[in-house]
């Protein structure tokens, strides 16, 4: 489907629909009259397959206790095997209400209070929240910024693990907010370090379906799964198919011992039933969602090109990180806006609601993250306004 056709068919106005992204701007940013390009959900209707499945369930009229049937696991397995060469066994899968909740539960299961947990900043800020909220000790290693292209400091990563006696690493793949899709070699080097020092890996792969320059390789599949016994994968259709509000997430634990330990924790601490709509929507997405998401990806990459090309032409001092994955682009404004004036510039002058760089880690003041999952008109307005306000 062409970009214009997809936008015409699926773009939807979301104001006054109890949208966190659009209707809580006053509470989050202190201003209601902003163009929201912040929290990671989309301004597009879900695929027709999902709509039909949910409509049929609504017409059935009963929303009682449910379970994931064989067809769910088959659909999930087919999706993972077809697009990521990672066939999933039913017995490996557990559910959560979301990726963030899953990470909290996994931290409680596999670490103790005051254990060290490592992340690589700038990174999705609920990672650090989860570590601190569970009374674990947050250990951070910054990615290396090469003019907007971020890479891993492997030597530093290993030394910090040794010095801080790290027990667990939260991996972000594809990486939010810097847009990297880690290569197999990069991941293999990281995971070999974890193996040498007995560090468990939680791999948040919720953006797995949004890749542009290379294919996503699941952490559990790196080098034919050599590190699989220490990898726990968290993924979901929520980002890919814009169904985060249906609160359904997969946790994949291939190792029998780790899975038993998680089950022991879950049996005593987690009694949440699966969301009937989340289950059915996810299955529908995995059965009949690829054409929709392929068209969506064309829109997202087009929006990225608008940002990259406009700033390159009219404000070359702004650095735009290459978009290998996710639908979020990281932008470095430090050469054109003083860090202590960033909020006034972005909100007061430009009228935008964005995720600020410092939310993702200390030292990233002056960066912003833009959500590209909206109509191109909003992205064009955004970059034009920023350049105009720079004078």
TrEMBL record:
InterPro entries, per database record: Aminotransferase_I/II_large (IPR004839), C-S_lyase_PatB-like (IPR027619), Class-II_PLP-Dep_Aminotrans (IPR051798), PyrdxlP-dep_Trfase (IPR015424), PyrdxlP-dep_Trfase_major (IPR015421), PyrdxlP-dep_Trfase_small (IPR015422)
UniProt keyword terms in alphabetical order: Aminotransferase, Lyase, Pyridoxal phosphate, Transferase
Segments forming domain Aminotransferase class I/classII large: 70-386
GO molecular function: transaminase activity
Known EC number: 4.4.1.13
Classification via Pfam families: Aminotran_1_2
Cofactors, names only: pyridoxal 5'-phosphate
Domain of life, per lineage: Bacteria
UniProt-listed NCBIfam families: C_S_lyase_PatB
UniProt record similarity statement: Belongs to the class-II pyridoxal-phosphate-dependent aminotransferase family. MalY/PatB cystathionine beta-lyase subfamily.
UniProt name for this protein: cysteine-S-conjugate beta-lyase
Organism, as annotated: Ruoffia tabacinasalis
